[in-house]
């Protein structure tokens, strides 16, 4: 199911909600109906609550005109009151502790629906509990339909009402949601982004290739680096072997300084693959920090696909960069001045960048 299809289905569901609200106005007693959608996105949860304006006006006046229309100016004036109401609308708890909740948006759409948007860090210890606080303050009989969505799939749902105003997803539902949302392609793209914007890793790779290794030597360097960081990436992700970031990050900076200086004082790269393997083990711990922050290890066997796809993204990114840089370096090395001047100058800049990262990650 595509993202566009999910959006259309969600829009249709919200439309049906307001159709029900409109129909019930024909009766003397209108209990009201609202919607809450919880979207699991990695280590965060985004919540979107939708209420009919007439329900919200029972709690906060919006100063509508005789036709029931709220102008932009009037809404702006009422927005601070709505934000205060939004802050009270829901509460998230886990293990008896309140989870910090951020209000990310308050909106009024053209169909007079009021939208509250929130986000919070997904608790890792146990399933969280959503407490909907406005139900008890609205006319008795008000209902709120809650949906839990992982990726593009509906994982769980519940109808809340007076006396039953909380929703707690099961651990199985959350694990399923995490596995759905953390798909192969999402982690593949995450791996690509990590190498594309990981400037310290890029500096290390560029320093390795700058010495102008022949194709066979370059292949050995890239292969050894890949093998080494794949090993520690897997071990660190599953907490088999783990090094704290205050050790890993400075060591990565040291590897950049060393290779930059080696390019200046030692031009023989025949056995550089062995050095690359050693430093690759350290870089693997750096890569693993991304997956650990997302709680991948907690998925057990379900972590295999995210681990593989993330690592594959990193490797494809490295190969693409090498494929662009190496032919250019080989061409430039045909010019004698490039070897004597520019290789030294670029290597010195890389070593200085590594030195800056080392100071930043230790002293600063």
Number of strands: 10
Q: Looking across the biggest beta sheet, what order are the strands in?
A: 5-6-2-1-8-9
Structural class: alpha+beta
Oligomer designation? single chain
Which value, in Å, is the CA radius of gyration? 28 Å
**How far apart are the termini?**
48 Å
| Relative helix content | 55-70%
Q: Low-confidence spans: pLDDT under 50, at least 5 residues?
A: 5-29
Mean pLDDT: 79
User: Count of helices?
Assistant: 11
Name the shape in a single word: elongated
The largest β sheet comes out as:
6 strands, mixed
* Domains, number: 2
Give a summary of the structure in a few sentences:
The protein has about 375 residues and is an alpha+beta fold. The protein has helices at about 5-25, 55, 70-90, 170-180, 185-195, 200-210, 215-235, 245-265, 270-295, 305-330, 335-360, and strands spanning about 35-40, 45-50, 90-95, 95-100, 100-110, 115-120, 130, 145-150, 155-160, 165. The protein folds into two domains: about 5-180, no CATH class; about 180-360.
What does this structure look like?
The protein is α+β, with helices and mostly antiparallel strands. It has 2 domains: 3-180, no CATH class; 182-362. Helices cover 56% and strands 17% of the residues. Helix 6 (199-210) runs antiparallel to helix 11. The radius of gyration is 28 Å and the shape is elongated.
